[in-house]
């Protein structure tokens, strides 16, 4: 990774990006969707998923992860936020003005990445917490109650890590989208590419061997940060999985910074 990748962008550049993002109606709408859609999706899923475990028999469902299933929708919205942070300017041609004001393109990319990660992280954590608080009572109504399913302690390590980790995963997806959008330079390509590489491997994996590979070494691995129980179909540890997704995100941003430097030289 280049030294520029770890250098914090200048405050003036970051301030300019904050002004842009807060002045964009489309981005504000996306933030609203990122805050609400995961909650609604989680509630809808758990309200229609009854427990199949006999009363009194210990269950093996991951009730905390199930209340956070809305992250599947949130990840798509986060991809939109990340990709449009630079893609909208590419499409409108305003990116030329931005690069004129800040000739070193890597600083612009880092500033956009910083703002996208910060906003999606905060919204993601809040949305995850609300998702749990809304979905858990609906779960109880579907039979997910003690003794089969003891009530989770939100202040214990696993549930707290799942909720905060979901916010971290959301931010990682936004960062991944910033990198992809900067490389391909088209939002219409970047968003489907991010969603396809993030979600499709997990949805399309068939054999056990493929599922294990997908669960450990593709961007889909990040969803394991939500796991709070031990199951045979959980192939990666929580932090291992999240680390894999973050690694993909950092790699794409690093590639975009290298390309930015080359474009600087060409100009």
Structural key phrases:
membrane, 10 helices, disordered N terminus, mainly alpha
- In total, the number of domains comes to 1
User: Percent of residues in helical segments?
Assistant: over 70%
Number of strands: 0
User: Rg, please?
Assistant: 20 Å
Number of helices: 10
Kindly estimate the percentage of residues that lie in beta strands according to DSSP. under 5%
Structural category is: mainly alpha
Distance between the termini: 23 Å
Quaternary organization:
single chain
Estimate the global geometry from the Cα principal axes. Answer: elongated
Poorly predicted tracts of residues: 1-6
Sheet having the most strands:
none
Query: What order do the SSEs take from the amino end to the carboxyl end, as H and E?
Result: HHHHHHHHHH
What would you say about this model in short?
By secondary structure, this protein is an all-alpha fold. The chain has ten helices and no strands.
Question: What does this molecule look like?
Answer:
With 267 residues, the chain is mainly alpha-helical. The protein has one domain. It is 72% helix and 0% strand. α7 packs parallel to α10. The longest helix is centred in the middle third of the chain and has 37 residues, at 105-141. It is elongated. The two termini are 23 Å apart.
